[in-house]
Every structure is written in structure tokens, then in C-alpha cells.
Amino acid sequence: MALPALGPAATALAGASSFMYLDALWRMGEDYKLARGIVKARIALALNNRRDRNSIYYVFDDAHRKRGDADCYVCDGVTYSWNQVALEVNRLAHWFLSQGIKRGETIALYMPNKPAYPIVWLACLAIDIVPAFINYNLTGQGLAHCINVAGPRLVLYDSDYASPIGEISSSLSEKNPGITFVRWCDRFNTGVGEKAQGGVDGEVRLDEAVLRQMSEKRIPDERRNGVTWQSPCCLIYTSGTTGLPKAALTLHGRCSTAFKVWTSLNEFDKKTRIYTPMPLYHSTAALLAVGVAWNAGATVVIGRKFSASSFWKDVRESRANVIQYVGEVLRYLLSVPPSIADKDHEVRLARTLANQLFPPLSSQLILLVAQVWEKFRERFGVQVISEFFASSEGNGSLFNHNGNKFGAGAVGKEGMIVGTFQRNKQVLLRVDPLTEEPARGKDGLCIRAAVNEPGELVIQIDNTSPYQAFAGYHNNPEATNKKIMRDVLSKGDTYFRTGDLLRRDADGHWYFADRLGDTFRWKSENVSTSDVAAALGEVVKEANVYGVLVPSQDGRAGCAAIPKSAGPVDFVMLSKHVSKTLPKYAQPLFIRLVDALESTGTGKQLKVTLRNEGVDPDVVRDPVFWLHPDKKAYVPFTKEDWGLLKAGKVRL
């Protein structure tokens, strides 16, 4: 007897049920891998502690003994074997010792992406000194600030970047008496351009000829005896989106944990070749590419800088099977015209790594982002996207190793095993929309956010744990204390404040909602700048959204800065689009055309200056358009319009 045919609704329901069942199985497997990685990390750290091998130098050292002449680093077609890297590390470590550097002292490293970067870091680890990873895009006051915060014994700067150092050298010497300026020269230097000119009087030149004179012997273990998991292995700076960057103390224990967990979750091994054009001064590339490769015995292909037009060419030529990117990179890759070579690479069955792959997400635009994920998978043939959420100074992280459509766009995903373990360790707190402080109940304790309710992520601090400790910021106790919240779920407990709003759905998917301070209140509603930016991204290539103060109005009105490089803006289409896709309170009332959008080295947009300038024609010289309340379309915003607003004659 034939079974009756299912109707369209029943068929769809059956398909959805099957899909969710398969996703549940997938999540169970990923949950197991994550739990396995955490257990492995705990066992390894306990064993290393007993053997006095807490330094992450040994992660590289152990892999070097196994990998020998295999590829360790590839850059601009030049390949370094593990043996070659170890030799260069030993030479440089002995040179550091010849300069009289003592254990625990700090050096500042100001260098672009190149193999020398991890080599310098390893040399520092070998003799237990702490490198401060300085953003090579910084100049002037910002550069001086970051170096001075580190209080370095010496500044090691790339020859191509000598000029910015020369300009601030006198002020650095004043605040750091006895500081040594060391100019690094190697085969990757161009020797041209304004930055390569100048330098510092009395600087020390360090090149291959000098290093060849140094000993090639491995630094004895005694030099690293006594290093604990609480000891810093480097200083990594916060992005500085709301002020001058802070130097986060990055600990050996936290790094060791990250190396083990990330390797296990993504199943990296000696066949893995990770391509990263992301800046090595940031934790994403330094820890989750370079450091993880030490743990896995993998190869790192170092891209000198990100280029959407040459990205896949570099991937193909280097035979990379893993790619790493942050921020808006995925959108940039999709914006390049399609090519018959789009799937001509080895990343098809490998993993991709991402940190906040898209602008922050809320429930309104998850579907849009999921569609972008699928466009990327379909066009480039990449099957798995391994998303994560973390911060340079934080004491926790979230992972979403995603190989299907369910949970696309989530920055974290946890099943029963990890979810049970993390219930009180990583918590979302309900936030007061006016004060941006976590709301508290009558008992004085914080209130957990409900399912799908955006809340601030806080992470329990346990300074007896190598992976839950919060070390804070180097030479900045005030900023450190601001990140600590007390009496959260019980009297006397302490949690690290991420400053990030996330939401968690009933299936254990975590979605990034926004940065605290990146939302604004308008018409008694909270507006997510990222939601608006994502909606505008369907019409314009890029937009930086923020709230601005308007005379005679409560709250902040939405404004979007659009770079002129994105091409001419079709304001008729844009006005129709925002009216169709966004609720009225979230529609940007102002559009500012700027020469370029400013962002940090990790792709986070800078908003503070734009927000402070607002749309006052006496302050803003860029062309500004506004969504005219009568015409319902974007038209030029004039001084007369500003005057009407000040006089309270216009109702927005």
C-alpha cells in the first residue's frame, strides 16, 4: 500500500526537522572536540608545571625536534624550515644577552609582517624577556604612548619604519633613560619610501652579518626555569577604539590553553598550512596562527598585508589549506569580481579562522549574515568556517566551528558538555539601557539576561587557574580595575567585563550584538549601530554608523559615514532601502561623505571623533545629507536646516 504524499508544509517541516537533527549531531561532535581540547590543555599545563616547562617556548622547541627541515614559515616565496628558524632564534637570543638584557625586562617590537616577527618573539621567550607588540601603523603620539607604556629596555624597529621612530626618539629617551634603539635590516626590507629614511643617532644596526657572528647553541633550560603560567609572554595592545591603546598582559598559561584548544577544535596537524595576512602584532595572528602552528607542527604562510585582489593568488601559490581573517575581510573578498579561479585552491575542505567575521550581529540581521556565509562558501568552495569570540586581555572565549547553515553567523556554540561546564563561568547580564551598567536586583546581585536577550558578557575570574586568570594591563592598574566587576552572581565573586553585548539562543548559539557604547538611544529605542551598518551594506560597500546629538531632540539621531572611495551614492535608492529594511527609529537620519573611514589594524571602525563632531555645519566640512522629514528622501543638509533644528522648528 502506497504511503500518502506529504503536502508542501509537511515536506518542509520534515526537511527542517531532519536538518535540525543533523545539526544536533554536528554540535554534539563539535562539543566533544572542544571539551577534549580543554581537557588536553589542563593535563598538558599540569604536566608542564610539574616539569618546570611553563614557557610557551617549549611548544615551539618540541615541534622543532620533530619537524626539522619541514616548512615552518613561508613569506613572499621564501621558505624557512624549522631548523633554520631555531638557528636564527638562538643567534638572536645570544645577541640579546650580549646587550645585557635581564630576565623579565621588556623590549618594544615595531615591525611589519615578516618571518623575523615570530623569530624575535621566540628569541625573547628563549631568554624570558617580554616583547611589546607595537602596531606598525602608529606614528607620533600614539606610537610614543604605546612604547612608553611598555617601559622597554630597547626598541627593535624595522629599517623600513625608521622615520617614525626617529621623530619620537628624544621623547622616548627622556621617559626611558638608557633605552637602546636597534634598527633591524633583512632581505624583506624595501629600503625605499619616507618611513625608511631617517632613524636615530647612535642606533645599533642589527642584520644578518651581525647575527652570523653569534652562537648557534640552544639557550639552556635554566634560563627559563621558574617561568609560571602567570608570567607574561608578550604585551598585546587593545585596539584603542575609545582611547589610547592599553597593553594587555598576555600570559603563558592562557596562550598554552589557546594553542591546545584551537588545535583540537580545528584538527590541525603537520599537514596544515595557515595563510594569514592579518597583523602579527595582534592576538588573532600571533596566537591563533603562529602559536597554534607551533603546537600543531604546522606551517604559517605570512602575508605581508591584506589585499583582496591578490588574496587567493597568495593562497594558491603557497598551497595554504587554512585561511585567517578578521573584521570585514570576507565582504572585501566577495566584492572582488568573480573569477574562474575562485575555487582553484586547497582550502575547500580545510578550516577558515575568523574573529568577528562580520559587523556585530543582532537577531534582526542574522538571516542576512547567514546568506553572506553561504555566498562565500558557494563561491569559493570553503566548507567550514571556524568563528570565535575573544579579546586580547580577556580570560575566556567562545567558538563556533560551523560546517552547515544552522548557527551561521554565531560567534559561539556550546552543547551540553561545555554548556554545563561554562554555565557560571561565562554569563550574559541584563544591561540598563541608559547607564550601560548591568542591572541589579533587590539583593544587589546582577540579573542574568533571558534567552535571546542581549546582555553584557562577563567571565568569572579565577587567578588560581591558568585559563581563567585576568592579568589586566601593563602599568595601568586603573584600567585593570575598571574591567573587574564584583558581587555578580554571589557576594564576593569577581568577573571580567568584556564590554560586549551578546545574546544566546535556546540552541546554545551565541551572537555578537554590539559593543557597549556602540549603541545609541533614539525615540525611546536602543539602536544597534551594527544592525544599521549591515543593512546599509546591501547598498553601499562600507558604512560607519553612530549616534549624534541634535538640537531640541532627546537621545542621539543615527548618522552613517560613507567613504567617497566607495563610489557615488544613489541617495534615492538608499532612502528607499532604509525605509524598507529598518524600523523608523533605526533609520540613519544623516549621511556624511568622508574621504576615508578610519579603523584599527584589526578592522574595528573608529567612531569617537565622528560621534563628537556630529553634523554641525560649522564643525563638519564634509558633505552631509539628511533624511528630510517632509520629502522622505536624502537631500543636502545646510546651515539653514541646522538653524531650523536649533530653533525647534523641525520634528524628526
What Rg, in angstroms, do the CA atoms define? Answer: 26 Å
What is CATH's topology name of the domain at 20-51 and 357-517? Luciferase, domain 3
Sheet with the most strands? 8 strands, mixed
Percent in strands = 15-25%
In whole angstroms, the N-to-C terminal distance is 67 Å
* pLDDT < 50 stretches: 1-15, 356-366
- CATH architecture of the domain at 20-51 and 357-517, please? Roll
Describe it.
The protein has 652 residues and is α/β, with parallel strands linked by helices. Among the domains are: 20-51 and 357-517, Roll (Luciferase, domain 3), CATH 2.30.38; 519-646, GMP Synthetase, Chain A, domain 3 (2-Layer Sandwich). The chain is 33% helix and 21% strand. It contains 18 helices and 28 strands. Strands 2-1-11-10-12-13-14-15 form an eight-stranded mixed beta sheet, with helices on both faces. α16 (571-581) links the parallel β25 and β26. The longest helix is centred in the N-terminal third of the chain and has 43 residues, at 8-50. It is globular. The chain starts with 7 loop residues before the first helix and ends in a 6-residue tail after the last helix. Residues 1-15 and 356-366 have low confidence and may be disordered. This is Very long-chain fatty acid transport protein.
